[in-house]
């Protein structure tokens, strides 16, 4: 499942304050096996299962918010039940709904904040959870050295990709540190578990360093594989 690219890079200035969107303490949970959602990014989804059609209908009449979760390994036998999920999630706000025939729809989520599950609830066709918002510590932004190191290693990684030109816009100085790190975390060819590891980072610096390490490893794997050919 592909995600939409981050729209409208924000100013890096800390004075660019935006009033936070209200997030209730109990939210619907949408678990998937291969998607990890990040704040400040956008996620398009095709909704077709009856339980999630009901979820979207309820959410659009209510809080507008859904918590996206990653399913743990071994989810397959119980997919239509409530298989285990990782407790760190990302809250998304529904910013558009495109109704389709037979009750299906396409929706677009805007990533708001990270959260953790305090308690799960199973009294509706879809899962809900009482959540605790756990925003990352990013007031200070990235140091110039950390940002530059991340951009440099990404530049080396992208040299071998045909779509490298499409990534250049994210490296502009006016793109905020959080948008840069979270967008790269979304679109890099990491496994879902690696992306979950990035989502769970304590702060923006830690996420950037983890991302740097992952890209370094991917570079090593790429060059190592080429050396064996």
Order of helices and strands: EEHEEEEHHHHH
Radius of gyration from CA coordinates: 18 Å
DSSP helical segment count: 6
In CATH, the architecture of the largest domain is Roll
Residue-averaged pLDDT: 85
CATH class of the largest domain: Mainly Beta
C-alpha geometry: globular
- Could you tell me how far the N terminus lies from the C terminus, measured between alpha carbons in angstroms? 31 Å
Task: Describe what is shown at a glance.
The chain is α+β, with helices and mostly antiparallel strands and 229 residues long. It is built from six helices and six strands. The chain has a five-stranded mixed barrel.
Descriptive overview:
By secondary structure, this protein is an alpha+beta fold. It has 2 domains: 108 residues, Archaeosine Trna-guanine Transglycosylase, Chain: A, domain 4; 85 residues. The chain is built from 6 helices and 6 strands. A 5-stranded mixed barrel has the order 1-3-4-5-6. A hairpin with a 5-residue loop joins strand 4 and strand 5. Helix 2 packs parallel to helix 6. The longest helix is centred in the C-terminal third of the chain and has 25 residues. The radius of gyration is 18 Å and the shape is globular. The chain starts with 25 loop residues before the first strand and ends with a helix. The N terminus and C terminus are likely disordered.
């Amino acid at each position: 499942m592909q995600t939409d690219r981050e729209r409208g890079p924000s100013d890096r200035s800390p004075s660019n304050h935006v009033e936070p969107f209200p997030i209730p303490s109990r939210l619907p949970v949408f678990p998937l096996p291969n998607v990890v959602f990040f704040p400040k990014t956008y996620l398009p989804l095709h909704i077709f299962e009856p339980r999630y059609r009901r979820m979207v209908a309820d959410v659009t009449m209510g809080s507008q918010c859904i918590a996206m979760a990653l399913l743990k390994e071994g989810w397959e036998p119980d997919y239509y039940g409530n298989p285990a999920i990782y407790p760190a999630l990302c809250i998304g706000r529904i910013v558009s709904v495109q109704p389709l025939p037979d009750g299906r729809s396409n929706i677009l989520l805007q990533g708001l904040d990270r959260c953790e599950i305090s308690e799960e609830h199973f009294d509706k066709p879809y899962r809900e959870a009482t959540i605790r918002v756990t925003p990352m510590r990013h007031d200070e932004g990235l140091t110039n050295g950390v940002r530059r190191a991340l951009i440099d290693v990404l530049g080396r990684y992208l040299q071998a990709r045909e779509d490298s030109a499409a990534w250049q816009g994210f490296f502009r100085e006016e793109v905020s540190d959080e948008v840069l790190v979270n967008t790269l975390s979304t679109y890099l060819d990491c496994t879902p578990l690696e992306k979950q590891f990035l989502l769970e980072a304590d702060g923006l610096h830690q996420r950037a360093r983890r991302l740097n390490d992952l890209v370094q490893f991917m570079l090593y794997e790429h060059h190592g594989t080429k050396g064996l050919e």
